[in-house]
């Protein structure tokens, strides 16, 4: 007969540090849905950050009862995650999930029935001399549902039971609980995997050294310590830029996808070290390259180890890279039950060395720069990886010229259209009010924005100005573009509110949008736009024109979270507000005109007036839809679609050209859908311009 008692203490271990990757995909047919999706997305991100910002307080309490083993912990905040026996987190008998919708608690626990110790992987040891029975296991409290993170804790537990002898006389004594006879303190740190990138010889560390493109590299993955049973496998690897805007998969299912850059991975005999040869490579116009790999622990097969059933998936298995393109082989390379870990390392790559100057005879029709002192046509050309060196006496190539022409033509068309609106609006009776002043402000902001591109950035690209000398000037012109953009979009919002008030509160419109109030609103828009333009520079997000990318690019040290909230999300919210307000305005206009149609008589002046109102209504909805669609399309293409097209021309069209086009199109939309603007270009006599028609009705009052 056995009696038992228990006390157990554990030492805790931290998990691997990891980074959470965000891929943003926005789809939808309306700006309202887009805004809702973004808000929901950031609520999820917020909840995830709260989930990981948690920890276990004090040492968990272990109870070794007659029927089960129970480990109970106490956390700083409500626990969201799972507790499980290491290697068995998918088994319902060996794990427990805590969800916010069901069993959220600050006291997570895991109970393992003694009848399930075999299926949960608990080790069982009996000592014939001391007559003790010991059960051992490692229990993990994971604060993330998928990965091992820095907040996770693992505890090595042991329950020791002592067997006692009793003298049996006339009857059997009742059998009591087994007792734990000793407090055992231990620490179990989850194995960690490190990634290092070295030169062709391992001792030549390349971590902080600048490497030339094409230099030999040795990629090495290794466990932090030697473990008799644990090994690992590299599941996948991605290379990406520091800002995560561009990435490429290099290793999939344990095999290289491009053996010209990185060879297939080789493993040591004990599966604790992995190697892969490769050559230095980089993204265009980027020096710093990050390599992030998903690795997974496995069990190293050794002598006397017998594994059957589902446990075979936990063994370290080499991938069949000679058949890696076959789907069946991908399915065979399954993940085991161990959580994945993310390891990362960076390496800094520079372009190949500049070749020495070479003399050669250029054709007479050559586009190369001619030395004015060389009458025979001999020229000197500095080449870097086959492309003309900027600022080395070599003028911009044909593609640079073509891009500069596209920028200039697009921008100058917008300058003309928006300037016409700003200069002629004061001549129209319909625009001699608060609405007209706001329209002139918006058009002026867009015209100035496009003028910067037409008369500064386009010549800079065409004539290949040296930005090392004009860096501060470029930064200030980039800031001016942001100011003009903000003036334009904020004025759009105020114009929408102006239309809304004029239809819903016509009797109060004159007192709300007075001349004095309008001037204050205009001053506030300009002041706020100038002040807000310093928010991005505060986060090292200065915009500087890049000759290589043909765009206003953010500095490499830019805070991407600040950029997302300060630029993209802010603009989407404003565009959504404009859409909602204009929709309400259109509904009011439609209901008003529909109500008037019941009181009209065919052939009367009122009927003709209603038909004109109907045309105004149609043009209004066209203008609202086209302008809103243009702004939303530009935001999506600039921040998201362009990431899928890193090639120079597609990326240029989806970023720079789209940004210019939305402001150019805005001016043309206003001109084409407003009869007053079209009429003024054909008649300079104000008396011949279309006048506002006023009709006094005994039943309905005054209409325009």
Automatic annotation (TrEMBL):
PROSITE patterns: ZP_2. InterPro entries: 7TM_GPCR_serpentine_rcpt_Srx, CUT_C, CUT_N, ZP_dom. Pfam families: 7TM_GPCR_Srx (PF10328), CUT_C (PF25301), CUT_N (PF25057). The keyword Protease does not apply. It comes from Mesorhabditis belari. This is ZP domain-containing protein. CDD domains: 7tm_classA_rhodopsin-like. Gene3D superfamilies: Rhodopsin 7-helix transmembrane proteins. The chain crosses the membrane at residues 24-46, 402-426, 447-465, 477-501, 521-539, 568-591, 620-640, 652-673. Keywords: Membrane, Transmembrane, Transmembrane helix. Residues 63-323 form the ZP domain. The keyword tRNA processing does not apply.
């Amino acid at each position: 007969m056995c009696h038992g008692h228990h006390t157990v203490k554990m030492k805790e271990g931290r998990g691997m540090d990891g980074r959470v990757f965000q891929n943003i995909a926005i789809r939808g047919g309306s700006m309202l849905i887009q805004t809702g999706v973004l808000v929901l997305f950031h609520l999820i991100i917020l909840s995830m950050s709260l989930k990981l910002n948690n920890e276990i307080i004090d040492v968990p309490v272990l109870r070794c009862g007659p029927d089960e083993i129970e480990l109970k912990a106490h956390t700083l905040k409500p626990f969201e995650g799972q507790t499980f026996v290491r290697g068995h987190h998918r088994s319902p008998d060996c794990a427990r999930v805590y969800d916010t919708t069901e069993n959220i608690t600050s006291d997570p626990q895991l109970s393992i029935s003694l009848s399930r110790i075999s299926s949960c992987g608990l080790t069982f040891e009996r000592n014939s001399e001391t007559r003790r029975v010991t059960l051992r296991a490692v229990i993990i409290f994971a604060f993330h549902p998928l990965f091992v993170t820095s907040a996770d804790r693992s505890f090595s537990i042991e329950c020791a039971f002592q067997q006692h002898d009793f003298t049996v006389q006339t009857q059997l004594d009742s059998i009591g609980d087994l007792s734990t006879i000793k407090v055992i303190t231990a620490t179990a740190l989850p194995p960690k995997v490190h990634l290092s990138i070295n030169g062709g010889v391992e001792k030549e560390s390349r971590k902080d050294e600048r490497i030339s493109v094409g230099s030999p590299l040795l990629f090495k993955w290794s466990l932090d310590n030697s473990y008799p049973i644990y090994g690992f496998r590299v599941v996948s690897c991605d290379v990406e830029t520091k800002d995560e805007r561009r990435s490429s998969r290099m290793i999939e299912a344990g095999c290289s996808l491009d053996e010209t850059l990185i060879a297939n991975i080789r493993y040591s005999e004990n599966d604790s070290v992995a190697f892969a040869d490769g050559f230095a490579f980089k993204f265009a116009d980027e020096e710093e390259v990050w390599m992030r790999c998903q690795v997974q622990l496995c069990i190293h097969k050794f002598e006397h180890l017998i594994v059957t059933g589902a446990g075979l998936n936990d063994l370290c298995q080499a991938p069949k890279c000679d058949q890696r393109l076959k789907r069946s082989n991908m399915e065979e390379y399954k993940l085991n039950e161990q959580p994945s870990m993310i390891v990362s390392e960076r390496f800094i790559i520079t372009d190949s060395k500049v070749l020495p100057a070479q003399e050669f005879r250029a054709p007479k029709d050559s586009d190369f720069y001619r030395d004015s002192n060389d009458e025979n046509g001999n020229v000197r050309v500095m080449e870097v990886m086959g492309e003309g060196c900027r600022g080395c006496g070599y003028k911009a190539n044909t593609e640079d010229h073509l891009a500069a022409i596209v920028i200039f033509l697009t921008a100058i068309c917008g300058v003309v259209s928006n300037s016409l609106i700003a200069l002629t609006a004061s001549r129209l009776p319909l625009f001699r009010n608060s609405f007209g002043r706001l329209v002139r402000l918006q058009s002026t902001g867009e015209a100035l924005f496009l003028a910067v591109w037409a008369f500064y950035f386009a010549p800079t690209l065409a004539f290949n100005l040296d930005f090392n000398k004009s860096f501060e000037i470029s930064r200030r012109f980039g800031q001016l573009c942001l100011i003009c953009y903000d003036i334009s979009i904020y004025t759009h919002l105020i114009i929408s509110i102006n239309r809304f008030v004029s239809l819903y509160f016509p009797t109060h419109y004159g007192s709300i949008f007075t001349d004095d109030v309008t001037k204050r609103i205009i001053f506030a828009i300009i002041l706020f736009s100038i002040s807000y333009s310093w928010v991005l520079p505060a986060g090292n997000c200065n915009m500087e024109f890049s000759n290589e990318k043909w765009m206003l690019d953010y500095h490499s040290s830019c805070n991407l979270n600040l950029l997302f909230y300060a630029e993209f999300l802010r603009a989407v919210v404003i565009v959504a507000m404009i859409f909602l307000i204009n929709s309400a305005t259109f509904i009011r206009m439609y209901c008003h005109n529909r109500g008037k149609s019941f009181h009209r008589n065919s052939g009367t002046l009122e009927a003709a007036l209603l038909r004109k109102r109907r045309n105004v209504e149609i043009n209004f909805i066209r203008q609202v839809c086209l302008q809103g669609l243009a702004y939303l399309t530009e935001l999506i293409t600039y921040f998201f679609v362009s990431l899928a097209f890193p090639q120079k021309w597609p990326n240029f069209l989806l970023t720079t050209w789209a940004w210019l086009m939305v402001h150019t199109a805005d001016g043309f939309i206003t001109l084409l859908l407003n009869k007053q603007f079209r009429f003024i270009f054909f008649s300079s006599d104000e008396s011949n311009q279309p006048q506002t028609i006023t009709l006094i009705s005994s039943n309905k009052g005054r209409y325009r």
